[in-house]
Amino acid sequence: MGYATPLPRTSERRALASSEMSQSDSPTLRVVTLNAGSLLEPDWKNRRHEIVSWLDHLRPDVVCLQEVWEAPGKTNTSRWIAEQSDTEWHVAVGVRPFGAEVLDDPTLLFGSAILSRWPIDTEHYEPLALDLRHSNSFLSAIPFELLHVRTAGLDIGSVHLAPAPTQSLHRHQQVLQIDRYFRSVRGDADAIPPPGTVRDAMPPIVCGDFNAEPESDEIRFLCSLAPLDGQTTFWQDAWRMAGDGPGYTQDWRTNPIADATNIGRKRIDYVFVGDPYQRRAAAGRILSAEIAFHEPRTGVIASDHFGLVVEVVWPDRPAAPATHPTAMTRNPTDQSSTDSP
Q1: Disulfide-capable partner of 60 in 27, 30, 125, 275 (CB 3.0 to 4.6 Å)?
Q2: What is the dihedral of CA 210, 211, 213, 215, to 10 degrees?
Q3: How far is CA 139 from CA 107, 134, 135, 160, 219, in A?
Q4: How far is Cα 128 from Cα 177, in angstroms, rounded to an integer?
């Protein structure tokens, strides 16, 4: 077992994290999420290097990326990032075409990706449904998704939900679908154990662009603060549990891409971790949550979104393999990257 490389923190946050670790005395998992905006936002050829720089700086174990794309002769944007990184990444991609009402090119595929330090054992792409009572042909032509992988015994999901503030009814259906999906694939792993016993499995982790603010019904549902369609659940919102301040992941004051589209200040990107109750050795405890990709490291901002980096207690963390035949490797002689979008 090994510990994830510590992130630079203020002395106060470092002391808090140290105190939490002394209580749990367990290794950790470092999770990063970012809506990369690799298709719709400007200056991707420079921003992609910024994302690589941030990943090499953060040294996460798992990365969830939304709004990645690929086309014939064009490497998927997440695979390009993986190839350029100092880390040996295993990559899963979940993409599908837009409908003709949005883009009349069925060869261009759009969606999510998950990068892991460990081999990816299984992967599944789940299109996220809309509320058909309130949909239209344009919205129905946009691919919204849940990409799920199982890696090193972890269940990780990357999601992208309906975007507009007025599309909450669609997001209601989508968060219900995400919760149902993980209940179905997890079986009894998350069942409350009898008194005096503990749960061994790590809780599932779902990251991504939920396009919903913390006060919305869809986010309150996930946090067990409100029922939705007669259903209840509980996921830990990492920022609510361990973040400081408002946690805006879109902010026109400091993000020129968000400023150009006149997007308000919002917290709409999340890392959700399943219920940690009675899990062995504090598995699933959230130790820290911080904003990432919010300051330029190479001279440009990474995306119109800021990302998150979250530390979670993972008692059974395995050592990361040095190299695996299916891992992405970097070609140090390839500086042009002409095959990337």
Answers
A1: 30
A2: -70
A3: 19, 10, 6, 14, 21
A4: 7
Would 339 be classed as within a structural domain?
no
Question: Which pTM value belongs to this model?
Answer: 0.88
d(CA 111, CA 143): 7
The per-residue pLDDT string of the chain (341 residues; one tens digit each, 9 = 90 and over) reads 333 444 444 444 444 444 443 344 679 999 999 999 999 999 999 999 999 999 999 999 999 999 999 999 999 999 999 999 999 999 999 999 999 999 999 999 999 999 999 999 999 999 999 998 888 889 999 999 999 999 999 999 999 999 999 999 999 999 999 999 999 999 999 999 899 899 999 999 999 999 999 999 999 999 999 999 999 999 999 999 999 999 999 999 999 999 999 989 999 999 999 999 999 999 999 999 999 999 999 999 999 999 999 999 999 999 877 543 334 433 322 333 445 56
Tokens of 23: 């209580």
The answer to whether position 31 is within a domain reads yes
Find the CATH number of the domain harbouring 115.
3.60.10.10
Q: Distance (Å, rounded) from C-alpha 214 to C-alpha 260?
A: 24
Domain count across the chain: 1
Sign of CA dihedral 259, 264, 267, 268: negative
Structural domain includes residue 327: no
What is the chain's length?
Answer: 341
Q: Please report whether residue 116 resides in a domain.
A: yes
Give the pair of three-digit tokens for residue 272. 């959700």
Give how far Cα 328 sits from Cα of 84, 120, 171, 322, 323, Å. 9, 12, 34, 12, 9
